[in-house]
Amino acid sequence: MTETPETRTLYNADCPVCNAEICHYAAYSDARALPLAFEDLNTVDLTDWGVTSDQAMRRLHVLHQGQIYVGFDAFVILWDQMPRYRFAARIGRLPLIRPLARWGYERIAAPWLYRSHKKRMAKWAAKNQATK
Asked: Which residue, among 44, 47, 41, 37, has the nearest Cα to 5 in the 3D structure?
Protein backbone atom coordinates (compact mmCIF):
# COMPACT_ATOMS: atom_id res chain seq x y z
CA MET A 1 0.00 0.00 0.00
CA THR A 2 1.39 3.39 -0.92
CA GLU A 3 1.13 6.40 1.34
CA THR A 4 -0.94 9.36 0.29
CA PRO A 5 1.45 12.07 -0.87
CA GLU A 6 1.57 15.19 1.26
CA THR A 7 -1.03 17.71 0.25
CA ARG A 8 -0.52 21.36 1.19
CA THR A 9 -3.35 23.85 1.50
CA LEU A 10 -2.85 27.61 1.33
CA TYR A 11 -5.60 29.59 3.03
CA ASN A 12 -6.32 32.97 4.61
CA ALA A 13 -6.40 32.65 8.41
CA ASP A 14 -7.47 36.30 8.64
CA CYS A 15 -10.79 35.40 7.00
CA PRO A 16 -13.08 34.00 9.73
CA VAL A 17 -14.99 31.76 7.31
CA CYS A 18 -11.85 30.38 5.66
CA ASN A 19 -10.10 29.95 9.00
CA ALA A 20 -13.01 28.08 10.58
CA GLU A 21 -13.31 25.67 7.67
CA ILE A 22 -9.60 24.99 7.35
CA CYS A 23 -9.14 24.66 11.13
CA HIS A 24 -11.86 22.00 11.03
CA TYR A 25 -10.03 20.12 8.28
CA ALA A 26 -6.70 20.51 10.11
CA ALA A 27 -8.15 19.12 13.35
CA TYR A 28 -9.69 16.20 11.45
CA SER A 29 -6.40 15.58 9.65
CA ASP A 30 -4.29 15.82 12.82
CA ALA A 31 -6.56 13.39 14.71
CA ARG A 32 -5.97 10.82 11.96
CA ALA A 33 -2.31 11.62 11.26
CA LEU A 34 -3.08 12.36 7.62
CA PRO A 35 -0.17 13.75 5.59
CA LEU A 36 -1.77 17.15 5.07
CA ALA A 37 -0.31 20.59 5.71
CA PHE A 38 -2.27 23.82 6.13
CA GLU A 39 -0.41 27.07 5.52
CA ASP A 40 -1.66 30.54 6.39
CA LEU A 41 -0.94 32.87 3.46
CA ASN A 42 -0.14 35.61 5.97
CA THR A 43 2.79 33.70 7.51
CA VAL A 44 4.42 31.74 4.66
CA ASP A 45 6.65 32.68 1.74
CA LEU A 46 4.23 32.90 -1.16
CA THR A 47 6.99 32.58 -3.75
CA ASP A 48 6.88 28.84 -2.98
CA TRP A 49 3.31 28.94 -4.23
CA GLY A 50 3.92 31.28 -7.17
CA VAL A 51 1.13 33.65 -6.14
CA THR A 52 0.80 37.12 -4.72
CA SER A 53 -0.95 37.75 -1.43
CA ASP A 54 -3.95 39.17 -3.29
CA GLN A 55 -4.20 36.13 -5.57
CA ALA A 56 -3.96 33.81 -2.57
CA MET A 57 -6.72 35.72 -0.75
CA ARG A 58 -9.11 35.37 -3.68
CA ARG A 59 -9.17 31.56 -3.94
CA LEU A 60 -8.22 28.42 -2.03
CA HIS A 61 -4.98 26.86 -3.31
CA VAL A 62 -3.94 23.23 -2.84
CA LEU A 63 -0.62 21.69 -3.88
CA HIS A 64 -0.96 17.96 -4.50
CA GLN A 65 1.57 15.72 -6.22
CA GLY A 66 3.44 18.75 -7.53
CA GLN A 67 0.39 20.38 -9.12
CA ILE A 68 -1.43 23.45 -7.82
CA TYR A 69 -5.22 23.39 -7.83
CA VAL A 70 -7.22 26.57 -7.34
CA GLY A 71 -10.81 27.30 -6.34
CA PHE A 72 -13.40 24.55 -6.31
CA ASP A 73 -10.91 22.08 -7.80
CA ALA A 74 -8.68 22.71 -4.77
CA PHE A 75 -11.53 21.72 -2.46
CA VAL A 76 -12.12 18.52 -4.42
CA ILE A 77 -8.45 17.55 -4.12
CA LEU A 78 -8.40 18.38 -0.41
CA TRP A 79 -11.63 16.48 0.30
CA ASP A 80 -10.26 13.46 -1.57
CA GLN A 81 -7.39 13.23 0.96
CA MET A 82 -9.73 12.90 3.95
CA PRO A 83 -11.80 9.73 4.29
CA ARG A 84 -14.86 11.52 5.76
CA TYR A 85 -14.98 13.92 2.81
CA ARG A 86 -14.25 11.60 -0.10
CA PHE A 87 -17.97 11.41 -0.85
CA ALA A 88 -17.97 15.21 -1.32
CA ALA A 89 -15.04 14.87 -3.73
CA ARG A 90 -16.90 12.19 -5.71
CA ILE A 91 -20.04 14.32 -5.85
CA GLY A 92 -17.97 17.38 -6.79
CA ARG A 93 -16.54 15.53 -9.77
CA LEU A 94 -19.92 14.56 -11.23
CA PRO A 95 -20.43 15.97 -14.74
CA LEU A 96 -23.41 18.16 -13.82
CA ILE A 97 -22.24 19.13 -10.35
CA ARG A 98 -18.65 20.17 -11.15
CA PRO A 99 -19.46 23.03 -13.56
CA LEU A 100 -22.26 24.31 -11.32
CA ALA A 101 -20.10 24.17 -8.21
CA ARG A 102 -17.20 25.86 -10.01
CA TRP A 103 -19.54 28.58 -11.22
CA GLY A 104 -20.99 29.10 -7.74
CA TYR A 105 -17.56 29.25 -6.14
CA GLU A 106 -16.04 31.53 -8.80
CA ARG A 107 -19.00 33.87 -9.26
CA ILE A 108 -20.58 33.96 -5.79
CA ALA A 109 -18.68 32.43 -2.85
CA ALA A 110 -15.07 33.43 -3.55
CA PRO A 111 -15.85 37.04 -4.60
CA TRP A 112 -18.14 37.54 -1.59
CA LEU A 113 -15.53 36.17 0.83
CA TYR A 114 -12.81 38.31 -0.76
CA ARG A 115 -14.90 41.51 -0.63
CA SER A 116 -15.89 40.78 2.98
CA HIS A 117 -12.25 40.26 3.90
CA LYS A 118 -11.16 43.49 2.20
CA LYS A 119 -13.91 45.44 4.03
CA ARG A 120 -12.89 43.86 7.35
CA MET A 121 -9.26 44.78 6.75
CA ALA A 122 -10.17 48.37 5.78
CA LYS A 123 -12.22 48.77 8.98
CA TRP A 124 -9.37 47.33 11.02
CA ALA A 125 -6.86 49.71 9.37
CA ALA A 126 -9.16 52.71 9.92
CA LYS A 127 -9.63 51.75 13.57
CA ASN A 128 -5.88 51.41 14.06
CA GLN A 129 -5.28 54.81 12.38
CA ALA A 130 -7.84 56.43 14.67
CA THR A 131 -6.15 55.08 17.80
CA LYS A 132 -2.71 56.42 16.84
From this structure: 37
Compute the radius of gyration of the chain from its Cα atoms.
Answer: 16
pTM of the shown model: 0.88
112 conformational bin, left if phi > 0, alpha if psi -120 to 50, beta if neither: alpha
Strand order across the beta sheet in which 61-64 lies: 36-40, 7-11, 61-64, 67-70
Q: Which of 101, 94, 75, 92 is nearest to 21 (CA)?
A: 75
12-39 confidence digits (pLDDT tens): 999 999 999 999 999 999 999 999 999 9
Q: Could you give the angle at which helices 97-104 and 72-80 cross, rounded to 10 degrees?
A: 120
Residues sharing a CB contact under 8 Å with residue 15, sequence separation 6 or more, in sequence order:
57, 113, 116, 117, 120
Task: State residue 48's pLDDT score.
Answer: 86
